[in-house]
Every structure is written in structure tokens, then in C-alpha cells.
Amino acid sequence: MQHSSSARPADVTADTPQTAPAPWLDTYFGVSRRGSTLKTEILAGIATFLAGMYIIVVNPAVLSDAGIPFSAALSATVLISFMSSLAMGLYARNPILVAPGMGMNALFTYTLVLGAGLTWQVALGCVFWSGVMFAVLALFNVRRAIIEAIPLSLRYAITCGIGLFITFIGLQNAGFIVGSDATLVTLGNMDASLATFFIGLVATGVFVILRFNGALIMGIALTTLLAAPMGRLWGDEVMVAWNGLAAWPDFGAVMQVDILGALKVVYLPFIFVMLFTNFFDALSCFMALSESADLKDQDGNPRNLKRSMTVDAFASMIAAPLGTSAAQTFIESGAGVAQGGRTGLVALTIALLFLPFLFLSPLLSLVPGIATAPALVLVGLFMMAPIGKIDWQHFDQALPAFLAIILMPLTYSITLGIAFGFMSFVLIKALTGRVGEIKPAMWVSAALSVLMLVTAQ
User: Fold this and answer.
1) What pTM, to 2 d.p., does this model score?
2) Packing angle between helix 414-431 and helix 152-173, nearest 10 degrees?
3) Is residue 233 part of a domain?
């Protein structure tokens, strides 16, 4: 890491003007005060962008399964990533990328639209209302009460379960796992497509292990190149077809959100699950980054936490009118932090790097499903990291956590996994005489889970 506590404004001499931040940048972002330099902050922004730019391709690919046109979803992805990262840099002044998150897009597409049968416009309405609720929580700073209500084991389990679900989707998109009348699922045909996916997966894994900046996007590019001859030199289907280099942005999904249509009691559990997932993802990301880079205030809390959570809520609200699932903080921001990034100038750099991709929809549409599948599998792997933090020795914690993890991929629903995790936790505590360990918010969560199951029938 390039950060050094000994680097102070006084250390910057006339011999090193190229690394000294411009006065207004230094004053606004506090670059020198944080022991950083203009060059370090910009390089950190580039590193984070490379680590997270896979979302430019993967998010439209996921949302297109819900019926949103790829080009419109791509424009929405770029716009929300630019606006929310810019807000994170200028308002919260933290070195954090904000963009449509994996998990939230899977919940949107595969649970709300394909699973529950909502139109994508109504599903966007649910995204909007979850953002409104998030904003209220951020405004009144009630995070502590909510944090204490949800047990750590369930919070870790939900992250892991979403990871397994995303991996399952990636394996399906690649044709690695297919349906079976006898066993429900089975291995797909060992053909050129499957071989291309597997080579891409291994190569992407190697890039990650070697800690290459932009490992996932490198894997997507390589797998696309490997798939280019399919249907031409081998295989039956042409997967990569040239549609041009650039085009004007497609704003076809902008303001298509059905805000009033989402105001139904039956949709309340979906809104709550979106709120819960986004809220805790944001909070856990801020906590992790503050610990790894000492981004803390004088009280030891994550720096500018209230402002950062407000930006995250803002990003969730405006994502829906733009035509995409909720945006959230990216743990990939750690790539820039590891490069020495400490201020909002990192997020500002990230925001500006997104803009050119607004005009590259034809080029990015080259990417076939099997090329984004390795990235989905590895994102799922990354999200499995908290599984070791679950207390597996105490069954009152382990059983609800296990149900939440395993039911998400097996029921093909993030919402159902969370619902059974909450309900089982409350029932186990109540039936073993530990009612006092159930916080009010958990009772409400369990009640919403029951409501969702009853109304879904």
C-alpha cells in the first residue's frame, strides 16, 4: 500500500510538483491531509474502475433476462454508476465505487420478474420504494437499531446464499448446468460452448489468483475472443456478431418505472428484502474498507458513514427511474484503497471513467452469455467469504443460516431463502425459551416473511 502516515503537506517540496495536488483539490478532498497525492488518487481510481467495470457488461446481461433491452440497460448502468460514484466522491468524499450490484440485479430479474411474475416496470417500482425506505433510515441514522436486530450469522448467510445463487445463474447461462426430468438438474452437453466456458473460467481464475487489475473484465474479453469462431469454424451457433463500434445512448428504459403499481401489500416483502440486502451490503462494505485502510473518524466509526449511506440510498432511488436495479457500494473499491487511495478524488476518477461506455453499446453487445458466466461464478465465490464467520457449533444460529444459504439456489429465489432464514430463527428461539433474544425488527421480518409466503400461493 502506498499510504504513509508520515506523508504530510510539509513533505511536498518544489522538487516534486507533479505529485502535489492542485490547491483546490487538496482543500476540498484533503488529499495531502490524508497522506496521499494527486497521482496516487487517480491511479487508485483507475485500479478500482478496472476491478469493477465488469458490471458494465454483466448488469445489462442480467437485466436483459428480465426484458429490459440490453442497450437501454447498459445506458442505465453507466448513468447510475457515473452519478452515484460522483456523489460518493463530491458529497461523502470517500474512495468508493457505487454501481448496480450483483445480487440486487439477480433479485430483480430472477426473483421478482421471472419468479414472482412482476413486469420489469413494477419491479423497478419496488426498487424505487426500497430506496425511499433506505433514505429514511439513512436520514434518521437508525442503523444501529437495525444492525443489532439481525444476527450476524444470518447476515453472513444471506451474503453467502446470494453468492451461490449468482454462481448457479452463471453455470446455467454457460449451459454447464441444465434441466433434467430425472434429477432436476444435470451436467450439460460437453460441446464447444461448454469447453469455451470452462477455459474462460479457469483463465479468469488465474487472472484473479495473480492479482491482475481488471481480472474479471480480462476474463470476459478472453472468453469472448474464444467464442468468436463458434458457428464459423466449429459449433452450431454464432455467438459473437459485430454490430458496430459506437452509437448514441439508448434511453428507452428511462422513466419506465411503475411507482404506483408497486404500492401493493403483496409486494411489500420484496421491497423489504431489497432494502435489507442493500442496507447491509452497504454497511458491511463501509466497515470492511474502513478497517482495511483506516478510513475512520475520531470515534473509530467509518468516515462520513451517514453521508455515504445517504449516497447509497440516493443511488437506489434514482436507479429505478433510470431503468436499472439498485446501485450499491462495491467491495472492489478495496483495489483502489490497496493502491493508496484515501479520498473522494478516487470516486470522482471512477465516475469519469464510466462515461465513455455510454456510447459503446454496439461493441459491448458482442459479449455472449458464456463470456459473462465465468465472472458470475467468481463473483459468487467472492461472496462466499463470510461462511467461515458463521457459528456452526451452535445450532440455533447454524440452522437458520444453513436454510438461508441452501434455499436461495434450490428455490431459485433470494427472497425465499431470506424468508425461511428469518422464520426459522424466530421459531427456534421462541421454542427453546429464548424469546428475549429476538429483537422487534426480527419479529417484523418474520411476519413479513409469512405474509409473502401466504400471498404467493
Assistant:
1) 0.83
2) 150
3) yes
